[in-house]
Amino acid sequence: MTLKTAWFSRFANFDRRPERRTPMRIAGHYLVAIGMAGIACLIRYIANPYLPPGFPFVTFFPAVILTGFILGIGPGAVTAALCGLVAWLFFIPPVGSFGMSPSALLAMTFYAGIVSIDLWLIHLLAKAFRAERKERTEKERLAEQQDVLARELDHRLKNIFATMGAVIGLSQRYAQTPKELAAMLRERLDAMGRSNLLLRGVGGLEQATLGAVVQQSLAPFAEPGSGRIALDGPAVPLVSQAVLSLSLILHELATNAAKYGALSNQSGHLTVSWSLTTIDGREQVSIDWIERGGPPPAPAEKQGFGTTLQQRVIAGMGGSQHTRLPPEGAEVRLSLPLSAITPRSDEA
Question: Considering the entire predicted model, what is its pTM?
Answer without folding.
Answer: 0.49
